[in-house]
């Protein structure tokens, strides 16, 4: 079976609709056809200022959400990044292959660092795409399901893998980004030209999976739309409505054209009301399962420990090969 790998940051108390539609839905689907490795990337979460207690809680909540959304730990290897020290070890080798100018071109860094004072921006935030490359290359992943915002980092990962192979001999698998076009970028409800984001969206702009569905319904009702009335998909001129249509279409598993027909001659209000209902139907059972997993943290930790053990076997093998190729003297 080809291998798939992806990760998500525990940077909030809940995942949002963008995370689910852009990435996690694909994670679940790819478990059947792939040997899957999925992780909570806590090492990435400390690239910005954070609270240690919150990080620990969010790491568990993240794992519980992944299980509740359908990641099956019997079929997939589910683990926490910091449990596998090989990530930090391969990261160093990858940093020494990355050009400074190359790293400086990453637009996510430019966006995220622009929002903070210079002295608050960490070197870790600057080099995190390189750690991400190490995350992927350690598992020799063929496919990496992510949202559109990660496309550039995947390109960097491919470049680094190819560079390593050219310089030291074929060792690493060059991975492909798996980006589902339709839902690759879910937008902020209040600012439908920027992506919904755990760390950057305002509370009103973000639909959290673990929010009370009544709160989410209200956010959807207040979503920014244009002054027209026609429910049509037109991302250039009707960004807000188009975003709602994409979310609706994905959650209800119905083509956008179908929805356009259904809401012809009706206003945005009806669309928003029905979308809120579809969302409630989706999140309610997910939230119940999350609560169950969190009620038994010892069992949850056990699942993660088993995952880390499996992950380490694969990671250690790749790291040994890499260390050997770059000329590190093996310890006796
Ligand atoms: P942060 O703001 O802390 O970076 P985030 O919301 O971007 O958080 P990540 O943990 O960085 O979430 O990303 C997890 C996955 O979700 C990635 O594959 C990313 O591409 C995807 N993703 C994040 N936001 C969106 C979005 N608005 N639309 C589609 N996919 C998204
Ligand atoms: Mg992100």
Give an overview in words.
The protein is mostly helical. It is built from 13 helices and 5 strands. The protein has helices spanning 17-30, 42-45, 52-69, 86-95, 100-104, 107-114, 123-138, 151-168, 213-221, 239-252, 256-262, 268-295, 297-326; strands at residues 3-8, 35-40, 77-80, 143-145, 176-178. A 3-stranded parallel β-sheet has the order 1-2-3. The longest helix is centred in the C-terminal third of the chain and has 30 residues, at 297-326. Residues 8-9, 11, 18-19, 22-23, 146-147, 149-150, 184-186, 195-200 line the site of adenosine-5'-triphosphate. It is found in: Cytoplasm. It catalyses: tRNA(Trp) + L-tryptophan + ATP = L-tryptophyl-tRNA(Trp) + AMP + diphosphate + H(+). One of its GO terms (biological process) is tryptophanyl-tRNA aminoacylation.
Quick structural summary:
This protein has helices at residues 17-30, 42-45, 52-69, 86-95, 100-104, 107-114, 123-138, 151-168, 213-221, 239-252, 256-262, 268-295, 297-326, and strands spanning 3-8, 35-40, 77-80, 143-145, 176-178. By secondary structure, the chain is mainly alpha-helical.
């Amino acid at each position: 079976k080809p291998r798939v790998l992806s990760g998500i940051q525990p940077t909030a108390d809940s995942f949002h609709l963008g995370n689910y539609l852009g990435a996690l839905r694909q994670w679940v689907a790819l478990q059947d056809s792939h040997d899957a490795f999925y992780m909570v990337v806590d090492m990435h979460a400390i690239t910005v200022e954070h609270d240690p207690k919150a990080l620990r809680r969010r790491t568990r909540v993240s794992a519980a959400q992944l299980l509740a959304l359908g990641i099956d730990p019997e079929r997939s290897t589910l683990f926490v990044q910091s449990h596998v020290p090989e990530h930090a070890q391969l990261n160093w080798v990858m940093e020494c292959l990355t050009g400074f100018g190359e790293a400086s071109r990453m637009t996510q860094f430019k966006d995220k660092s622009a929002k903070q004072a210079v002295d608050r921006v960490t070197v870790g935030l600057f080099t995190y795409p390189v750690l991400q490359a190490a995350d992927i290359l350690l598992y020799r992943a063929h496919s990496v399901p992510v949202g559109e915002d990660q496309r550039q980092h995947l390109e960097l990962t491919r470049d680094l893998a190819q560079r390593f192979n050219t310089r030291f001999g074929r060792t690493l698998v060059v991975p492909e980004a798996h980006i589902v076009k339709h839902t690759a970028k879910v937008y902020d409800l209040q600012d439908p030209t920027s992506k919904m984001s755990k760390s950057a969206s305002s509370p009103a702009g973000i639909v959290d999976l673990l929010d009370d569905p009544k709160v989410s319904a209200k956010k959807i009702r207040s979503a920014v739309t244009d002054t027209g009335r026609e429910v049509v998909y037109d991302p250039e001129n009707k960004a807000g409505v188009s975003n709602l249509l994409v979310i609706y279409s994905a959650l209800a598993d119905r083509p956008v054209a179908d929805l356009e027909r259904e809401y012809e001659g009706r206003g945005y209000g009806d669309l928003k009301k029905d979308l809120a209902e579809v969302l409630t139907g989706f999140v309610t059972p997910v939230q119940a399962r999350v609560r169950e997993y969190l009620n038994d943290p010892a069992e949850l930790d056990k699942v993660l420990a088993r995952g880390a053990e499996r992950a380490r076997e694969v990671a250690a093998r790749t790291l040994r090969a890499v260390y050997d190729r770059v000329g590190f003297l093996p310890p006796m």
